[in-house]
Amino acid sequence: METDQLPAGTAAHVEALDRDGFVVLDNLLSTAELEAYRTIYDRFLSGEIDAGSKRSDLGAGAEPSVTGTENITQIMWPSLLCRELVDLPLHARGLELARELIGADAELDFDMLIDKAPRTATATPWHQDAGYWVNLPDGRAVSIWVSLDEATLDSGCMWYVQGSHRGPVRPHRPAGKGGGAIECEGSEDEPGATPVPLQPGAAVAHVGRTLHYSRGNITDRHRRAYILNYRPAAMIARERELGMDHGKTNNERVVRNTEAQ
């Protein structure tokens, strides 16, 4: 695929997101564009681009990874650390999609990298992103999870519970031993639990209350994902007033929703 065009069928995407709480977005990046992102991504993983306190292990507490670094590497705000990312097409395409999906007032709230290292077998627990967030009067938000590699059941593709976004934010608790991940009750046996394998360059968008998780990576290759989150500009301003900047100044991640809502 060698195109700079957004995937067609946005109206169908809006309908699916409203119905299921997530929607697959095919062909978001071309082969050449993928290589550009992978090159920068690997500079982060190797430490050539120093992420400092914005880098952490979401899988802390599991067995040490075979790579000698993290089991699940999370780097917050990569676009602040490498401005070249802003000039590549994903930020512009993501913003256009977000405005179609949740409204014309959407802006970038934050971005992040999440990599599952080979043969680490460290799952990301069931959770809702809203479990991390402060409560806002306008809850519209969408995360666009872009796969830079083939995401399979064995490498740690996303799983979602269809329709869970229509329910409350579940009680959450810290997961593991200080890795920053959170978890709530949920399992693959839950009605509506659906795996979403992706080809390189495809993405899946989900909203803040959609229940999701991913298995550990048991393959010999990385599972690199680039995530961009969007919400209304007025709500971003309100978050910042409340001290929530998603690791821009302080990468401490806490459970903000410990009781059902």
Automatic annotation (TrEMBL):
Keywords per UniProt: Dioxygenase, Oxidoreductase
GO MF entries: dioxygenase activity
Domain of life: Bacteria
InterPro entries: Phytyl_CoA_dOase-like (IPR008775)
Keyword Nucleotide-binding found: no
One family name in Pfam for this protein: PhyH
Gene3D superfamilies associated with the record: q2cbj1_9rhob like domain
Protein name: Phytanoyl-CoA dioxygenase family protein
Species of the source: Tenggerimyces flavus
